Amino acid sequence: MNDRRGMTIHFMDGSKMNLDFPKQVASEGAAVIKLKEALAARHLIVEADGALLVFPFESIKYIQVYPAPAALPEYAIKAASFSS
Question: Do the Cβ atoms of 14 and 33 come closer than 8 Å?
Answer without folding.
Answer: no
